[in-house]
Amino acid sequence: MRFLVSILVILQISLADSFATAKTTLIQFLQDNPHYQRDFYCNTPFRWVKNSFQIIPSPSYTPRNRYTKEGKINLRARQIELEHIMPAHTFGKHLACWKRGGRRECANDSLFKKMEGDLQNIVPTIGEINADRGNLPFREAPRRWLLNQYGQCKVYANFKDKEFYPANYSKGWIARSYLYMEKTYKIRLSKTERQLMQRWDKMYPMDKKERDFRNFLRVQKMQKLMRF
């Protein structure tokens, strides 16, 4: 695991100077690679429709709330958003700008923009789940926990205990992203969180999909360096 994280740090897979630029790059990648058009948490298929990625109805995901409190259709349950695996709050809260005024105050901070735009830490997710997860930390689900909050999607947002339980198939990617961010940007993780990520990294090795995406980032990085 240490070797893998060290390689990622050496590559410095931070291809974008801002979150907006990173999203443009990732959107183009997803358009060019249809087999990647499945969301991170539920493995639900989606497709590009006009100017956004829209979810394709599938048994893999059932909205928790089909309608908003105002009785309108919950559009975030129908669309894909690009989310930070490690939340902005986690990688930004130690910065002076964040302490002065949160994310808005950090909008022009060069280090924050670099972290915010790091494609190593950005994935496509269903809007509703992105909203529900928010800044909830990842945790291992308690035994015999009934994961039926989003139909067949094996994730759960525990609002009471302020925890989020991801599916097994995404735990390895989550872990490697957290360990990469910690190593690259000197993020201070708690002992409990670091141990969890180290355990998931060992339990859930990198699959072909994750490996191919890492290779894409590596190639993009090399091309960027050659332009300078």
Automatic annotation (TrEMBL):
UniProt keyword Signal, yes or no: yes
InterPro entries recorded: Endonuclease-I (IPR007346), His-Me_finger_sf (IPR044925)
Keywords: Hydrolase, Nuclease, Signal
Gene Ontology terms, MF aspect: hydrolase activity; nuclease activity
Source organism, top-level taxon: Bacteria
SUPFAM superfamilies linked to this entry: His-Me finger endonucleases
UniProt record similarity statement: Belongs to the EndA/NucM nuclease family.
Protein name, UniProt field: Deoxyribonuclease
